[in-house]
């Protein structure tokens, strides 16, 4: 008899505790206690009805939360679309007033213009792969403008690079100049290049910069009329191709 009274008291406590949680909108906790109410308890039917009510509330809450999450994701996507479109429009506008002369007269300045080309290429690549049609079109517009700039700028950069090197190497009695279409051939002239190792060392030292500037050939002469000069052929991209520092 004592055991039965204790059990009934326990069941009643579970129901009341569950209701307290329910009234405080603590539905998960309310379920935990209401599900403990035994079938023999007089509150069992009430507990079951309340459980159904809680299940309905939780379902509605779940649907509402999913709806709100969906709205939030959609807003985030739209915000990112707007940001990217504005960025593309800004970059397109910047190409209209682009002044390559600011990237001259030092190796660092010359390289910084190529870094800018690389940044544009990354934006263009992202736009081309995007699912939004307007972004695709903006990317194509930017690409056309960047290609036009690169075709005009790379020859100027190569020429200016040779002038910078010429100034630096003047004290070493080394002359540097460009020749060929689009200043695509870089030529060194100096007695130091009578030594083959000096040619090789110079080529290795400058190889990265020569590749970035898309030179097609490098000549090494030890005097002006050296007809048997050494030359290196470089396999570099065409000036119109996008800059990709990964390849």
Structural notes for this entry:
The protein has 2 domains: 2-74; 99-233, no CATH class. With 247 residues, the protein is of the alpha+beta class. Helix 4 runs antiparallel to helix 5. The protein is built from 6 helices and 4 strands; from the N terminus they run αααααββαββ. The protein is rod-shaped. The chain is 65% helix and 8% strand. Strands 1-2-3-4 form a 4-stranded mixed beta sheet.
User: What is the number of helices?
Assistant: 6
Instruction: Detail the poorly predicted runs.
Output: 1-9
Rounded to an integer, what's the Rg over CA atoms? 37 Å
**Strand and helix order:** HHHHHEEHEE
Largest sheet: spatial strand order: 1-2-3-4
What is the approximate shape? rod-shaped
Please give the alpha-carbon distance between the first and last residues.
85 Å
Question: SS-based structural class?
Answer: alpha+beta
Helix content class: 55-70%
* Biggest β-sheet description: 4 strands, mixed
The counted number of beta strands is 4
Mean pLDDT: 89
Q: What percentage of the residues does DSSP assign to strands (E)?
A: 5-15%
Number of domains: 2
């Amino acid at each position: 008899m004592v055991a039965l009274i204790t059990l009934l008291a326990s069941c009643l406590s579970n129901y009341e505790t569950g209701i307290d949680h329910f009234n405080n909108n603590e539905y998960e906790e309310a379920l935990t206690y209401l599900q403990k109410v035994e079938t023999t308890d007089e509150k069992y039917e009430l507990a079951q009805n309340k459980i159904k009510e809680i299940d309905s509330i939780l379902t509605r809450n779940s649907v509402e939360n999913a709806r709100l999450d969906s709205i939030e994701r959609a807003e985030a996507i739209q915000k990112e679309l707007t940001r990217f479109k504005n960025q593309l429009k800004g970059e397109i506008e910047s190409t209209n007033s682009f002044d390559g002369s600011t990237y001259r007269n030092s190796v660092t300045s010359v390289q910084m213009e190529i870094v800018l080309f690389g940044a544009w290429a990354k934006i263009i690549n992202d736009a081309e792969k995007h699912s939004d049609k307007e972004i695709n079109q903006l990317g194509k517009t930017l690409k056309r403008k960047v290609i036009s700039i690169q075709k005009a700028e790379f020859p100027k950069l190569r020429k200016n690079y040779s002038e910078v090197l010429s100034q630096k190497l003047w004290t070493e009695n080394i002359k540097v100049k460009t020749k060929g279409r689009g200043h695509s051939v870089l030529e060194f002239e100096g007695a130091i290049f009578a030594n083959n190792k000096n040619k090789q060392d110079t080529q290795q030292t400058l190889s990265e910069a020569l590749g970035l500037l898309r030179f097609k050939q490098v000549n090494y002469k030890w005097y002006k009329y050296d007809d048997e000069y050494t030359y290196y052929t470089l396999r570099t991209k065409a000036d119109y191709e996008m800059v990709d520092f990964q390849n």
